[in-house]
Amino acid sequence: MRPGDIAVAVAGLILCVYAVLALWQGGTPDAAVIRAGGRVVAEVDLSRARRVEVPGPLGVTLVEIEPGRARIASDPGPRQYCVRQGWLTQAGAVAICAPNEVSLSLTGRSANYDTLNY
User: How far is residue 15 from each of residues 11, 21, 26, 27, measured CA to CA in Å?
Assistant: First the structure.
């Protein structure tokens, strides 16, 4: 390898790191969209704290909203994956409680890139 090859490789690595840091970060969320059975149940602003109870086939899923973030606080599903996901803080973040057919997603001006919206 020549010095020019090393310089090109380092420049490419720096460009990749910059792209990840600058372009793949989700923005600040504005609202939370709560769905049950594929239908929008509620669209709530993230400016004040509240709790939303969402009925599903297995029981009631509790969604907790605080300023700038939201989470699934409890769910009757067997594995609790959506509860373990914790607080969602970036636009484009999603928590899905598949057995109870309930989902929570955060919306904003700039969404986080992932395989679903890429």
Answer: 6, 10, 19, 21
Instruction: Sheet with 60-66: list strands edge to edge.
Output: 50-55, 60-66, 69-74
Alpha-carbon radius of gyration of the chain = 19
**Burial of 54 per CB tally in 10 Å (0-12, 13-18, 19+):** buried
pLDDT tens digit string along 20-49? 777 766 678 999 999 999 999 999 999 999
Domain boundary assignment for the chain: 29-108
Compute the distance between CA of residue 14 and CA of residue 31 in angstroms, rounded to an integer: 34
Look at residues 47, 42, 48, 96 and name the one whose alpha carbon lies nearest to residue 71.
Answer: 96
Question: For the structural domain made of 29-108, what CATH number should be given?
Answer: 2.60.320.10
Q: Residue 46 and residue 32: Cα distance in Å, rounded?
A: 7
Among 25, 62, 26, which residue's Cα sits nearest to residue 41? 62
pLDDT digits (tens, 9 = 90+) for 49-73: 999 999 999 999 999 999 999 999 9
Q: Which residue has the tokens 């395989």?
A: 115
